[in-house]
Amino acid sequence: MEKRKFLSILAMIVLAIGLLAGCSGGGNQSTQTQPASGNESDGKSEEAASSTEVKGTIKIGGLFDLTGGTGDVGTPYAEGEKAYFDYLSTQDPVNGYKLELIGDDYAYKIPEATKLYQKLKSKDKVAAILGWGTGDTEALRQLVAADKLPFISASYSENLKNMDESPYNFLTAASYSDQARAVLKWIKDNHTEGTPKVALIYNDTAFGKSPIQDAKDFAKEIGIEIVDEQIVDLKALDATSQLLNMQKKDPDYAIIQETWGATATILKDAKKLGLDTQFIGLNWSTGEGLIPITGDAAEGFIGVVTHAFPYEDLPGMEEIRTYLESKGEKLEDKDQKFIQGWVAAKIMVEGVRLADDPTTGEGIRAGLEKITNLDLGGLAAPITFTPDNHGGTNQIRLAKVQNGKFEVFTDYFSY
């Protein structure tokens, strides 16, 4: 009897010790299976979880013009690209990978672009590149094709649509030639007196000359007379002589292929001369940065709009606004070229997201070619790529400077 009583008590003691051990979380097995509690432990748990989800880091190269001939528009564009990758660092991995943008200023010099490209390819081992200018993009396209590196440039040269010569280049906006054709079609449809007479003003670079022959060919096709051509340097501070020469031909319209600085010079000198020509600029002439350096001479200027202005009420702006606010910045302090850079980066990342193998250029190219009618929330025209066409879109809008502000007055259209 005493023995049974003793065994019973012993069993109760053993049970109590077991219960206490379970409640205290003691023992190796319990430590591994119980969820962590408290902020510090939660952070460690999340870090461990994310480390198992991330397969690695994919590097994207960047060629930026911050100090060269097109640095006026190149700087905010590069800021937009960098901002998008910074935003990505706060989001879930893309196709299982972290993405990193590695780039530098090449000052709009083709030899420097080539050096930077070689560094990005050989040392940094990038899987794709976000480029910039027309001259350097066209100069690099054979290397890009040989190295199989997808290349989204800020150049919209028609030449880059040639799939035989540029199989790894992708255009994320209407080509300069398509922009010029659309402008000419708009002139043809809206001009009311006789045959429209048009002048072309551009700079003597690959960028400046890119749409000129295509514009002349299309004008002839639709019954518009090109009456004059004038060369104005990207950094010109005076265009009086060119405008006086143009005035002799009395054009109704002048299409400008420049960036903000040269466009401002043209518009200010045209106002001084009292010209009544309607000036229409392609996309790099257009944007908020033109207005403060042009003053009231910008009034009435019409610009091609490939990307949205930050002050437009569009669904795609919310993502940018939220990101900027997290950095203590305001969307109102950014300009259209910032949006343009953000969109280019976003499209490249969509290619990574859709790639079966996002670690190689071939894989990312295949991912980009899956993009069909990509909805950018109004930030730009929808984009479509196929294995046979890397043109993206041929759609533009037009905006006019009224009371010191660009006001969009058309929907997206093409020629």
TrEMBL record:
Entry's family note: Belongs to the leucine-binding protein family.
Keyword Signal: yes
Protein name (Swiss-Prot/TrEMBL): ABC transporter substrate-binding protein
InterPro entries on file: Leu-bd (IPR028081), Peripla_BP_I (IPR028082)
Compositional bias annotation for Polar residues: 29-40
Keywords: Signal
Region described as Disordered: 28-53
Domain Leucine-binding protein stretches: 57-404
UniProt superkingdom: Bacteria
Gene3D superfamilies for this protein: 3.40.50.2300
Species in which this protein is naturally found: Calidifontibacillus erzurumensis
Pfam families: Peripla_BP_6
